[in-house]
Amino acid sequence: MSLKKLAIILSHPVQYYSPLFEELTKQLELKVFYAFQPNASQQGKDGFGKAFEWDVDLLSNYKFEFIENLAAEPGSANYKGCDTPILGEKLQEYGATHVVTFGWHLKMYKQALAYCKKNKIPIAVRGDSQLNPLLPFWKKLIKRIYYPFFLNQFNAFLSVGERNKTYLEYYGISERRIIFSPHAINQPFWQTESKLKETTFEFVWVAKFIHKKRPLDVIKAFKELIREHSEFGRKIALKMVGSGELLEIAKEEASDCQEIQFLGFKNQTELKSIYAQSGCLVLSSDYGETWGLVVNEAFASGIPAIVSNACGCSVDLISESSGRVFAWGDLNSLKDNMLEMLNICANEPQSVSEAIKAKNQIYSYQKITESFKQFLIYE
Predict the structure, then answer these.
(1) N or C: which end of the chain has fewer CB atoms below 10 A?
(2) Helix, strand, coil shares, percent, the chain, to 5
(3) Half-sphere exposure at residue 348, Cβ-oriented, CA atoms within 13 angstroms
(4) Per-residue model confidence as pLDDT tens digits over 202-213
């Protein structure tokens, strides 16, 4: 059997994916091709509201190459931000037998697709898109017409979860071409000794302070929870981690509630200890949240999550004991589920722990590795 050489196409180094590439390298021959390396200012523009650099190394222990990018303004937010016309030459030089793009929304990805179709090289796309009922009708119509033709040019689809599988099938992709490739994070990195406070149960919200993350929903629901249940027998608190355009508005909304604390932006290493001291994560986003990898982080840290039903991960990660799903934008639903998780964590901690461990076994790097191996069988 000839050596399979996998090429992965990605716009830029991403904190969630670099540890995955390091893990894949242990079992597969692969090389990652990037279009640009964002500086601190560029990363800050993506909703964070401040310039920063990740405090973990994103370019170690796997092969990679930055391809010449002709974009006037390199970036991943728009189609022309990654324009790499020599990508095909680089793939040929590497000797790629299989190619995986991490999306299809950039010119770089379509350049990879064109090269693979011309040279009869199997190409798969890995994504987490979900059907969005909030999308304008005209956008739905255009996608309904164009996507069945466009997507069927790929040989296979590495689908991260149920919502993404439904999305692909809606646009005419047959089930036999969809490979389960679950969203996962570097679990050992996030695993740390729990340091829960005995007197206070802390909810934690980790996100950018932008509209699709709906930070005000959490603040309002938490304040109502306190008003309705003044005597828990245990103090409760809400920690909000992140920065962004809605931060000052959120602080104003929370100004009359001393139990809400704003911790600002926290990098990967700092965030670990915050999860370890928390009792439950809250993810309040709308349908723009195609997954929600902070839930994977929380699970790796051993804490459950309350997730809106608009988030892509809600179907896959949340079971009866690993957390709760609430109707997005429904403050009463969120408040009631926060109260439920308070009681469950107090009375059924073992069930919560076992449910989280079960999810971590499925949504893991091991399962992703298996999915890439399955794709490498394609001829």
Answers:
(1) N
(2) 40, 15, 40
(3) 15
(4) 999 999 999 999
**What is the amino acid identity at position 217?**
D
| Distance of alpha carbon 55 from the chain centroid | 18
Q: Are the C-beta atoms of residues 242 and 207 closer than 8 Å to each other?
A: yes
Q: What letter would DSSP give residue 8?
A: E
What is the pLDDT of the chain when averaged over all its residues?
A: 93
pTM recorded for the entire structure: 0.93
Give the span between the Cα atoms of 138 and 141, in whole angstroms: 5
Q: Cβ neighbours of residue 82 under 8 Å, at least 6 residues apart?
A: 11, 35, 36, 69, 71, 74, 75, 76, 106, 107, 108, 109
Distance of CA 8 to the CA centre of its chain: 18
Spatial neighbors of 305 by CB under 8 A, at least 6 apart, are 280, 281, 282, 283, 295, 298, 299, 317, 318, 322, 323
Structure tokens at 368: 């992703």
Go through the domains of the chain in sequence order and give each one's CATH number: 5-184+364-375 (3.40.50.2000), 188-362 (3.40.50.2000)
Phi and psi torsions of 33, nearest 5°: -110, 120
Question: Which parts of 95-179 fold into alpha helices (H)?
Answer: 107-119, 137-151, 162-170
Provide the pLDDT for residue 50: 65
The string of DSSP codes covering 45-110 is: HTTTSS----SS-SSSSSEEEEPP---SS--SSSGGG---TTHHHHHHHHT-SEEEES-SSSHHHH
Biggest alpha carbon–alpha carbon distance for the chain: 68
Tokens, residue 234: 């245990």
